[in-house]
Amino acid sequence: MEFSEQYGPWALIAGASEGLGAAFADECARRGCNVILVARRETLLDETAARLRDAHGIETRTVVADLGRGDIGNVLSGATDGLDVGLFVYNAAFAPQGPFVDVPLDDHLRGVAMNVTTPTVLSHLFGRPMVDRGRGGIVLVSSGAAHAGMKVFTTYAAGKAYELILGEGLWDELREHGVDALAYVVGATATPTFMKSSEHDAVTATGARTPEQVAAQLFEVLGTTPRGYSHPGDEDRTSAAAGRPRTEVVAAVGETISAIWH
Q: Which of 18, 133, 151, 198 has the smallest count of CB within 10 Å of its CB?
């Protein structure tokens, strides 16, 4: 089956205004899918949509919305009414940072909304029609932070762990209905946000990949595994860490965070 037949005619990318989300949308459009772009920044969304139309000759829709709002399911249900969404990619995240007890509780709860509640709501919203038609795909973009508790980014790492396990569970449950689900573990990526928040030496040390490389890799693994990795070798490193005492694993992560966070 052609890509657009399995995952089209519309792909919805949540968190698609720039960087990695825009790169995911570009890969979908290049494969013949129309795209629905969802994010908060209207100007960037419109620019990305125009570029995709010009480059690939596909249709686009934009939805300006905060993915942490409580009624996001209703918002996107209305915005996609009458559209056959065959692929849902959840790329949004919120990462409050700082000592857990010093970060305002509202920031932690926004992280829970963005990283736990909304991907659950939208996977349910778009998953039901996919199961009914017997085809489609759901991608939840997780992070290497999901593999261990992480000081300074405590609720972010916990939320990404939730997405990781949710994606794997959906893979096993939905595959018998012809729907491909994937938890996509993304390592350091040179997105605009990442580059602004990181020291140059830290970015170089992490071996950050470009958004385009990470997006291309997604479509190499979608439909083949419950958990995919954006960076070659990350799966082996994760497997090796799993055999170590958790005290060592979590402490090692904490040392790395302490070295780059200030």
A: 133
Instruction: Report the domain count for the chain.
Output: 1
CATH number at residue 222: 3.40.50.720
| Residue 60 token pair | 């686009």
Q: Is the dihedral of CA 42, 17, 226, 253 positive or negative?
A: negative
Which pTM was predicted? 0.89
Please choose, from the candidates 218, 38, 228, 255, the residue with its C-alpha nearest in 3D space to the C-alpha of residue 146.
228
The SS3 of residue 37 is: strand
pLDDT digits (tens, 9 = 90+) for 92-125: 999 999 999 999 999 999 999 999 999 999 999 9
pLDDT in tens, 28-52: 999 999 999 999 999 999 999 999 9
Taking CA atoms, 147 is separated from 101, 159, 189, 196, in Å, by 22, 11, 17, 24
Going by the DSSP 8-state scheme, the letter that residue 143 receives in this structure is E
